[in-house]
């Protein structure tokens, strides 16, 4: 099997039954013999089941909720065309679990604002382009996490710094330093007198945290 998402007792039961899990495998074509990989290897099979995700079943929605191309249409606060209904997750757009968690928090904040007669706050920063996230330090073989901190450290989709220290180590001018806060938090601080705008930090960061801002042109 080329699936890697099956974990825990389900995976153990499948392995006892003779199933084999292989990852990473990249499919080139489905042939009469089975699955042809990009490496040229043929995984022989009588039956090939293609699992590429599900489309949401939205038939239960009232007519007051607008949809678009098979998904629920929402605004920046995940409020639908019916002001009493909010929607998140794959019903809105296909994505990762962390995308749904982040959307849920934004929707909950918007609902709380409405309950208290406030206008829902807009996001402080736009969602990061997922193409900027790198996977050099992500271990897909991990099947469980001992703590929330460990889970956050392995996350490769939320766009939050996980304190790997790569930016501090790679900066050629030692312009980046880690500053600890009073509550156990921290921030990465850039010394503008040392930064030369080389972009090494932005290129190395696995979470896409760093951005380079172009200087104002000299008059």
From TrEMBL:
Q: Which domain of life is it from?
A: Bacteria
Keywords of this protein's UniProt record, alphabetized? FAD, Flavoprotein, Iron, Iron-sulfur, Metal-binding
**Cofactor(s) essential for the protein:** FAD
**Xref: InterPro entries:** 4Fe4S_Fe-S-bd (IPR017896), 4Fe4S_Fe_S_CS (IPR017900), FAD-bd_OxRdtase (IPR050260), FAD/NAD-bd_sf (IPR036188), FAD/NAD-binding_dom (IPR023753)
Q: Name one GO molecular function term.
A: metal ion binding
**UniProt-listed SUPFAM superfamilies:** 4Fe-4S ferredoxins, FAD/NAD(P)-binding domain
Q: Where is the 4Fe-4S ferredoxin-type domain?
A: 161-181, 186-215
Which Gene3D superfamilies would you find in this protein's record? Answer: 3.30.70.20, FAD/NAD(P)-binding domain (3.50.50.60)
Instruction: Please identify the protein, giving its name as recorded.
Output: 4Fe-4S dicluster protein
Could you tell me which species this protein originates from? Answer: Desulfosoma caldarium
